[in-house]
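Anyone opening a protein record will find just a pair of labelled lines. A complete record is shown below as an example:
=====
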Amino acid sequence: MEFKTLVRKWEKAARAVLRTCWNSQYAKPAALTALLAVIYSPTIGWMVDRWMAKDSYFSHGFLVPVVSLYIVWLKRRKLKAIKPRSVSWGLALIVGGLLIHVLSAFLRVYFTSAYSFLPVLCGLILYFRGLPTLKELWFPVTFLVFMIPLPLIAIVGITFKMKIFAAYWANKIVNAMGIRAVLEGSIIKMRHTHVVVEDVCSGLRSLISLLALGALMAYFSNLPRYKKLIVFLSAGAMAILANIVRIVFMAVTSEVYGAKFTEGFLHTLSGLIVFVVAFAGLMIVVKELE
C-alpha cells in the first residue's frame, strides 16, 4: 500500500514537472524545432553533404544558421516586447511549404525541399507570433537562403559563364600590361606558359560568400535602404573584380617565374588574398556611403 502511494506521488510530481516544462516559453519552440528537424532530416543530410563536399561552393553553409540565430538573440528584448497576435493565414504557408517538401522529398529534389523550409518557418512565426514578429525577423529568416546549395546543373552553367568572363578580362589586362597573351576558351596562353581558368577558379565561391557578407554588412549598417542595396550589389562586383585580379596575378607570375612557382601554396594563398582584398574594397564602399 505504501509502495502504491509512493508511485502515485511520483506520478503527480512527474506530471507537474512536465506541465511546467511545456508551459515554459522555450518548450514549444524547442518541440517545433525538433519536429522540423525530423521532417526535414533528409534535406538537412543533403545540405551537409554538399557543404562538406570537396571543392564545395557552400562550405560556409554551417555558419549561416548560426549567424541567423545570433541575430535573433540580439533581438531577444524587442521580440519579448512584441505582443503575440496569431495570423490564421500563416497556416496556409505552413501547409503549402510542407506539401512542396513532401513532393520534393518523394522526387528527391532536395533543392526545392530546402527552399520550402522558408515559407514553413514564416508561417510558423505568423501563426504563433504574428506579423510584427515576422517583420522583426525578416532578415535572419531570409539570410538562411545562403545556406541552401544550388543544383549542380545550375552551378555548371554559372561557373562556365563566370570563368569565361573572368578569363576574357584577365587576358585583356595581361595584354595591356605588355605581356602577349592569347585566349582560347578559358585558357590564357602566353609565350612561355599558360593558365587554365577552371571551374573552381570561376569566382563563384567568393561571389556567394561575399554576397552573404555584403548582406550582413548592409543590414547592420545605418545606411538608407537604397545605399544598403548598393553595398549588397557591390559585394558581388568586388568578388568578380578580385577574382579577375587573381587570375592576372597568376598569369603574370607564371610567365615571369614559371608555372611551378604558382602551384600549391601560392595558388591557395592567392585565393585568400582575393577574399581579403574584396572585403577591404567592400569596407571602403560602406565607408564612402556613410
Q: What stands out?
A: The chain has a mean pLDDT of 84. The chain is about 75% helix and 5% strand. The longest strand covers residues 181-184.
